[in-house]
């Protein structure tokens, strides 16, 4: 658990062991601060580790016993990122499932100081006690999501989110969108709502059509002009690991490239590496801090074959000593392939480490995490990187040798990949996979 937390703080640039906690007047009691406000984001890592963003009514964070709350100097957006780890917070096991978006909470704990203050200041609170003061109402939840998008770095998402809200309350089919979506009507049902509220088999049928339309319109809006795979021709997202593995085999499997091993970064359950190791005879190591829980059918298909290796840790740049050892290995860098399918926070580290060490890599970027990486700027207009499109442009600008391709599955399907200069020509010895 401590390793996981340490890794998380490393991703934020590391904690500063020398810095004393900020002491805004009138100061905390025994180094304890408390923050009170609405939950605007919950990320559950496990039952023993949960991250909760709390937006305070005003930008205030005060000491336990102070009547008047004191402003915290580093907090500009009124949001506190509360880290609830079972080791520090005895309430966590009983609270864990109860923490919901929109709930009013009070959290107590110590403020953590980051080594390098990020361009968008953030306040991390290591929580020792948490109380839920009031549960969210359904409409409160809507506000909470909007509030989360309010800070400067999430502007682009705020726009797309408000358009979602608008869509929910307009209607071309005469159908109540709240009703079809949740089985409840925000406007009070037949009494107060002008739209239709079908029931029973009609509801099931209309819901199916509505969901299919939503999925299709989302896919159309994500489709890029140069993507050769029409939305209707794409495979389901669940087939992405196999498709990516086959693409890797076709692209990097030529003897010229001489790839001896793969590091499957942020691989989750590790399906891509497993496929490469078993179907294409390419030793692969999964790198992901999560426990690897495989679906039953994967275990059945595995039969008596062994699972590929798993290093449980964070892929960050600069790498920790253990990761460094794994990267060096016994294979020369140009024969080790780094891959990342929807690798979330590890995406940029794969690119940076690959380019620096001369290791070929292939990634399919997805989420951007703008609040975690607020310093990224678009190479074209200098704007913040808040969308996947901008993120891909930003990554691609790191080296003129970076290429791209599309994979035939739904969702984020653009691959960026790079081979060290001369890799095509270098006739390496040994048994590369083919
Ligand atoms: C969206 S999932 C993708 C999993 C898998 N590649 C797939 O496509 O099904 C993202 C994964 O990234 C992992 N992850 C996030 N940041 C990471 C980091 N810095 N190092 C390693 N894994 C990370 C998470 O634990 C999670 O399993
Ligand atoms: Zn209605
Ligand atoms: Zn993602």
* Bound ions, cofactors and other small molecules, one mention each: S-adenosylmethionine, zinc ion
Report Rg.
Answer: 24 Å
Query: Structural class, from helix and strand content?
Result: alpha/beta
Summarize the amount of helix as a percent range: 25-40%
The strand order across the widest sheet is: 9-8-7-10-11-13-12
End-to-end Cα distance, whole Å, is: 40 Å
If helices are DSSP runs of H or I spanning 4 or more residues, what is the number of helices? 12
CATH class of the largest domain: Alpha Beta
CATH topology heading of the largest domain? Rossmann fold
CATH superfamily of the largest domain: Vaccinia Virus protein VP39
| Number of E strands | 13
In total, how many domains does the architecture comprise? 3
Domain C3H1-type: 170-200
GO molecular function, one term: zinc ion binding
InterPro entries: Znf_CCCH (IPR000571)
Zinc finger (C3H1-type): 170-200
Description:
This protein is of the alpha/beta class and 434 residues long. The chain folds into three domains: 2-139, Nucleic acid-binding proteins (OB fold (Dihydrolipoamide Acetyltransferase, E2P), Beta Barrel), CATH 2.40.50.140; 151-222, no CATH class; 235-418, Rossmann fold. It contains twelve helices and 13 strands. It has helices at residues 2-11, 92-95, 138-149, 155-169, 177-182, 200-222, 240-252, 271-279, 296-302, 321-328, 347-357, 388-396, and strands at 33-46, 49-55, 62-63, 79-85, 104-112, 123-134, 261-265, 284-287, 309-311, 336-341, 361-364, 403-406, 414-418. Strands 9-8-7-10-11-13-12 form a seven-stranded mixed β-sheet, with helices on both faces. The protein has a five-stranded mixed barrel with strand order 1-2-4-6-5. α7 crosses α8 (271-279). 31% of the residues are buried. The model is unreliable at 21-27, 58-77, 138-170 and 425-434 (pLDDT under 50). One zinc ion binds next to loops.
């Amino acid at each position: 658990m401590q390793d996981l937390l340490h890794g998380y703080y490393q991703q934020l640039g590391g904690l500063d062991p020398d810095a004393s906690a900020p002491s805004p007047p009138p100061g905390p009691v025994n180094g304890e601060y408390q923050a009170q406000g609405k939950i605007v984001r919950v990320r559950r890592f496990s039952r023993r580790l949960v991250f909760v963003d709390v937006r305070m009514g005003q930008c205030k964070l005060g000491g336990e016993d102070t009547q008047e709350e004191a402003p915290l100097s580093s907090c500009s957006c009124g949001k506190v990122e509360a880290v609830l780890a079972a080791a520090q917070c005895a309430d966590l096991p009983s609270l864990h499932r109860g923490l919901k978006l929109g709930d009013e909470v009070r959290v107590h704990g110590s403020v953590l100081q980051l080594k390098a203050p990020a361009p968008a200041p953030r306040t991390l609170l290591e929580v020792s006690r948490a109380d839920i003061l009031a549960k969210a109402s359904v409409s409160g939840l809507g506000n909470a999501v909007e509030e989360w998008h309010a800070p400067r770095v999430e502007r682009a998402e705020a726009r797309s989110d408000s358009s979602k809200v608008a869509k929910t309350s307009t209607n071309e089919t005469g159908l109540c969108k709240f009703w079809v979506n949740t089985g409840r009507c925000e406007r009070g049902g037949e009494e107060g709502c002008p739209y239709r509220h079908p029931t029973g088999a009609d509801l099931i049928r209309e819901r199916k059509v509505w969901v299919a339309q939503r999925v299709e319109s989302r896919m159309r809006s994500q489709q890029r002009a140069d993507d050769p795979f029409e939305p209707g021709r794409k495979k389901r997202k669940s087939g992405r690991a196999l498709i990516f593995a086959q693409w890797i085999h076709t692209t990097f499997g030529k003897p010229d490239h001489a790839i001896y091993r793969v590091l499957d970064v942020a691989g989750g359950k590790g399906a891509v590496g497993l496929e490469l190791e078993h179907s294409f005879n390419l030793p692969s190591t999964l790198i992901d801090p999560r426990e690897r829980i495989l679906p039953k059918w994967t275990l059945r298909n595995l039969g008596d074959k062994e699972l590929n290796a798993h290093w449980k840790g964070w892929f960050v740049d600069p790498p920790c000593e253990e990761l460094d050892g794994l990267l060096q290995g016994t294979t020369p860098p140009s024969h080790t392939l780094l891959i990342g399918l929807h690798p979330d926070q590890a995406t940029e580290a794969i690119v940076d480490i690959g380019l620096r060490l001369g290791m070929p890599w292939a990634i399919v970027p997805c989420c951007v995490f703008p609040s975690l990486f607020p310093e990224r700027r678009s190479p074209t207009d200098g704007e913040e990187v808040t969308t996947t499109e901008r993120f891909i442009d930003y990554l691609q600008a790191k080296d003129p040798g970076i290429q791209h391709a599309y994979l035939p599955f739904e969702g984020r399907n653009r691959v960026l990949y790079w081979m060290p200069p001369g890799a095509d020509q270098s006739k390496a010895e040994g048994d590369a996979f083919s």
